[in-house]
């Protein structure tokens, strides 16, 4: 601990539990800047938002405590309620708004609702169960349909997909 800089640096299977904000953070290496209320983590990062039933895994992450905002970089994976998995290169997650922005080779898999989404950039509005994508997007729905489009809005609970862009639907006969 550096008293002058108000900086705590730890290594080796580090765990922080915040019972007030209802989060848990595990990492190989963790740096806590008390003045800025920022936690920087590296190596086997696990961020658990207990209230939202969300687990985020990544190679590295930065958690801004005052903003309740987490950014991840490299090998990012979000697991919602154990059945919806989002993988991407990078995440930006706001705990306050419960919105996750994923970028870089994004893939969403929901085993219960039986769909897969592949795109480059995606925003998941968890409270509304709405997913929006930017750029080329491929949906695989109920293992029967492949839908190719761009800039898509998907209302998960209504199972409603829309886009103003050219859309191609392919029915798989398997």
Written overview of the protein:
Strands 1, 2, 3, 4, 5, 6, 7, 8, 9, 10, 11, 12 and 13 form a 13-stranded antiparallel beta sheet that branches. The chain contains no helices and 13 strands. The N and C termini lie far apart (60 Å). Helix content is 0%, strand content 69%. The mean pLDDT is 94. It is mostly beta strands and 174 residues long.
Mean pLDDT: 94
Largest sheet: 13 strands, antiparallel
Q: Note the gap between the termini.
A: 60 Å
Helical fraction equals under 10%
Count of helical stretches: 0
**How many strand elements?**
13
Rg calc: 18 Å
What class, by secondary structure content? Answer: mainly beta
- The best one-word shape is elongated
Poorly predicted spans: none
User: Which series of helices and strands comes N to C?
Assistant: EEEEEEEEEEEEE
Strand content: over 45%
Topology:
Layout: E1 7-18, E2 23-33, E3 38-49, E4 54-64, E5 69-80, E6 84-94, E7 99-110, E8 115-125, E9 130-141, E10 145-150, E11 153-155, E12 160-162, E13 168-171
Antiparallel strand pairs: 1-2, 2-3, 3-4, 4-5, 5-6, 6-7, 7-8, 8-9, 9-10, 9-11, 10-13, 11-12
């Amino acid at each position: 601990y550096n008293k002058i800089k108000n900086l705590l640096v730890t290594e080796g299977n580090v765990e922080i539990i915040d019972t007030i904000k209802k989060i848990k953070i595990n990492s190989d290496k963790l740096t806590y800047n008390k003045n800025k209320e920022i936690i920087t983590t590296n190596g086997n990062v696990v961020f658990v938002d207990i209230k939202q039933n969300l687990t985020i895994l990544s190679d590295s992450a930065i958690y801004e405590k005052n903003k309740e905002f987490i950014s991840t970089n490299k090998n990012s994976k979000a697991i919602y309620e154990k059945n919806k998995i989002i993988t991407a290169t990078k995440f930006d997650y706001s705990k306050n708004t419960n919105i996750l922005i994923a970028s870089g080779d994004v893939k969403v898999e929901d085993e219960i609702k039986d769909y897969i989404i592949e795109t480059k950039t995606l925003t998941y509005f968890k409270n509304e169960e709405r997913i929006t994508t930017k750029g080329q997007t491929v949906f695989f729905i109920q293992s029967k349909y492949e839908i190719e489009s761009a800039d898509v809005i998907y209302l998960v609970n209504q199972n409603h997909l829309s886009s103003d862009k050219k859309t191609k639907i392919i029915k798989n006969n398997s």
